[in-house]
Design brief:
mainly alpha; two-stranded parallel ribbon
Length: 137
């Protein structure tokens, strides 16, 4: 009896594997264009990137500016060596603030959606599953 199993040529399999890796990244950047990721630059490089994007906590506190959606790809490893301490704390706040605001927006969106769904007499199965997942988190 001959082997009748279906085998993809290696070239096609390679292309499919590459697409599985590339397509999600392309979609992520296309669907979330406002999300700016700032690379691992070290503390001073990150300060420069923030300054170049007009990220100024004093202007934000005064209501003259909004928090730019800049996300550090990782914490600078040299942050503990940054002096003086006030400068280190300021950079820490600039790194954390967009993350905190992003999470608050996600929570508020989930809360609003849950409120709409709970207020309805009938919900689709997908909506019930979403509510259960939200409750489990």
């Amino acid at each position: 009896m001959s082997d009748r199993s279906f085998k993809l040529p290696e070239a096609v399999a390679g292309v499919l594997a590459a697409l599985v890796l590339i397509v999600p990244m392309v979609l992520a950047f296309a669907l979330v264009p406002e999300r700016n990721v700032v690379g691992a630059l070290g503390a001073e490089g990150l300060e420069t990137q923030f300054r170049d994007h007009g990220y100024d906590l004093d202007r934000i506190a005064d209501g003259r500016a909004t928090v730019p959606r800049l996300f550090a790809s990782q914490f600078p490893t040299d942050l503990p060596e940054l002096d003086p301490a006030a400068r280190r704390k300021l950079l820490f706040a600039k790194i954390m603030l967009p993350l905190i605001l992003n999470e608050n927006e996600r929570i508020n969106a989930n809360r609003a959606r849950a409120g709409r769904l709970i207020g309805r007499a009938h919900r689709a199965r997908a909506e019930v599953r979403w509510l259960r997942r939200l409750a489990a988190d």
